[in-house]
Amino acid sequence: MTKFVRWSGIAHSILAKSHHNIKLGQAREILSAYLGHRTYASLRSHDLAVLQNQAKYVLVDPQMALDRAASLGFPLSIDDWHTVQMALKPSGVSGGSWLIEEPGMKLAATLTVEDSSDPRLRAIGSHIGMVDYNRQISASCTSLPGELPLELQFSVTGEIGVQGEDACWAFPIVSTVIFPRLGNRIYGVGKVQSVENVGQPKEYEPEEPLWDFSYISGFDD
What we know:
This protein is of the alpha+beta class. The protein folds into two domains: about 5-100, no CATH class; about 105-205. Helices cover about 35% and strands about 25% of the residues. The strands form two sheets. Strands 3, 4, 5, 7 and 8 form a five-stranded antiparallel β-sheet that branches. Strands 2-1-6 form a three-stranded mixed β-sheet, with no helix packed on it.
């Protein structure tokens, strides 16, 4: 079963609870609009294969779904569609794709850096000691909302924590992250394009580990 077929079935089953005469084909039209296409035929012609095989991030548009539903004679409330959205988002349903509104890509950009094993990140502060943490604080998109460029680019600010022999230091960094566009509103896996240390490190106190000794005989008596 393809992603879109699975999602269409879920959307139809939910919408049918309040709109008993809605057909599966009409639910597909509404879902296609949610994914950025005017019609299901357009989605099928241009993005269906990409959606199934390559999509990591699908920039959804709830208002397009509501408008398409209204044009088909099924006025939906924001709450109606929110229920559908929540049902489609668990990873077991989304099939490894993020169904995400455009502003949410800022989080995707920060997570791309935090989860990265890029050696340029590990190299920062390596003359002092071992990396203790990689924390990204904020991200800003270099394109305007709605532009959907061929490469969606973000500037991500954060810090790398490094444990030295006598102290721990936080190095401020700026990273550039890009997401390649694969379809109408579909983007692929993000890539850390650049990493730069942008200031002097500041000393910090590492968090103390929380030790649990209750498993040792005598401590839980």
